[in-house]
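Q: Hi! First time doing this. I have a protein sequence and I read that you can turn it into a structure. Is that right? Here it is:
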Amino acid sequence: MTRFLSSKKYGHERGLSAAFRQWRAGSHCRFMHGYSLEFEFVFGTHELDENNWVVDFGSLKNLETWLRLNFDHKTLVASDDPMYSFFEEMHENGIIDMVTVEGTGCEMFAKIAMEHAKELIQNITEGRCWVESVTVREHGANSATCMRKTE
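A: Yes, that's right. Below is the predicted 3D structure, encoded as structure tokens:
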């Protein structure tokens, strides 16, 4: 069976600047640090639309809006971070714009984005397409990919 893939990238130049820390790490990653994150979504289908497209890129405005709401000038804090209440206090005092996440790091950000995009793409394409993968890059050397489960 033929399978088509297309991708949409929200590059580093988009300014999705987020700060976070991996509190479990024994390395310098345990300290707050930030990146202009890059997100690349790969979409799949067995059947192209009437324009011979996998996904109409113009229909993805809600995806970029969601990325901005969650990763643009945000401080991402793991829900189990032992300093969570400290971050919460900074948020309440207007020092940071905090977003609570299940976990931090490229792998978890890719998983979070995959979960959100999966439902969005299903709705936009009336079930014709799926999200094949999401890759999140901190910079040119570090990235992680979350891929869909295959049946």
